[in-house]
Design brief:
With 196 residues, chain A is of the alpha+beta class. Chain A has helices spanning 10-14, 19-25, 30-39, 44-55, 72-88, 101-104, 137-153, 159-170, 174-193; strands spanning 62-67, 91-96, 118-122, 128-133. Chain A has a 4-stranded mixed sheet with strand order 2-1-3-4, with helices on one face. Chain B starts with a strand and ends in a 7-residue tail after the last strand. In chain B, 30% of the residues lie in helices and 23% in strands. Chain B has a single domain (4-63), classed as Glutaredoxin (3-Layer(aba) Sandwich), CATH 3.40.30.10. The chains are: A alpha+beta (196), B alpha+beta (70). The interface between A and B is medium-sized, with 12 and 14 residues.
Chain lengths: 196, 70
């Protein structure tokens, strides 16, 4: 986020897809979005926290999400965001990244990467609170460790074989990474709002 | 003779540059735009996480084009 005026006006926010509209619009990975929507789980404590956050006077009444249907981080992460919105009454609006680069440019990872998904939390009057990007921190570490181990176990294997093994070993971790995503978004909002 | 295949995304600048260059050079290739087909997306992911993915006529695989990806 820069200090300049955001392109996300009330009208623009309202023009985004609801989750149901987005799922109806996508051309690939629909089954995976559904699979990870079912897998996404919020504990009763998480639900209580997000409800409390939304009810806070400066709380996240709105969530803007940037994504693309072909991206694994998105079909894993966006259903988590939908669960959070549904459980708390947050108004969620989704914008395909590549048709909304002006919004994406406000939330570049490390100021340069168009990483997705992005969940941007706003107050009821669209004052920016904070945003969360791409995947939880443990996912990066775990994926790297899984790849290192696969390379160690498969000396001389081709890139495709390594990729297949890494994919097979990372997919079962996706529900755990979804939980980590909830945890990170919760901590981020707790810090901004001063609530537990 | 096998045809050269390239997996692309509709929004990818490197893919657009590749297609423009190859078309002007008269290269015979088949484009598989992964955001239009689940089967092509799944195929592309076997090779890499980024586009363009190029499968040359001899089976060699390359990711990216002209030092560009995505």
């Amino acid at each position: 986020m820069t200090g300049t005026a955001s392109v996300v006006t009330s009208e623009r926010f309202a023009s985004g897809f609801t989750y149901q509209e987005y799922i109806a619009s996508i051309r690939v990975n629909k089954e995976r979005f559904e699979e990870y929507y079912i897998a996404a789980h919020l504990s009763s404590e998480d639900k209580e926290f997000f409800c409390k956050a939304v009810q806070h006077q400066d709380g996240p009444a709105k969530m803007l999400v940037l994504g693309e249907d072909w991206c694994p981080d998105v079909f894993r992460g966006m259903p988590v965001m939908a669960r959070i919105a549904e459980a708390s009454g947050m108004e969620m609006r989704i914008f395909p990244r590549d048709r909304n680069l002006d919004i994406m440019n406000e939330f570049l990872k490390h100021g340069q990467f168009m990483s997705i998904p992005v969940a941007v939390f706003y107050t009821r009057d669209l004052t920016y609170i904070c945003h969360w990007t791409e995947r939880p921190e443990p996912a990066d570490r775990e994926r790297a460790a899984i790849e290192d181990k696969a390379r160690e176990e498969m000396p001389g294997a081709g890139e495709q074989e390594i990729r297949a093994v890494v994919r097979d070993r990372t997919r079962p971790r996706y529900p755990v990474w979804q939980q980590e995503s909830v945890h990170e978004m919760r901590l981020m909002l707790a810090g901004r709002l001063g609530i537990l | 003779m096998k045809k050269r295949i390239v997996y692309t995304l509709g929004s990818c600048p490197a893919c657009a540059r590749l297609k423009s260059d190859w078309t002007s050079q008269g290269v015979d290739f088949e484009e598989r735009q992964v955001d239009r087909s689940q089967a092509w997306l799944d195929e592309a992911l076997k090779y890499g996480d980024t586009v363009p993915v190029i499968i040359y006529e001899d089976g060699q695989v390359a990711i990216g084009y002209a030092n560009m990806i995505g």
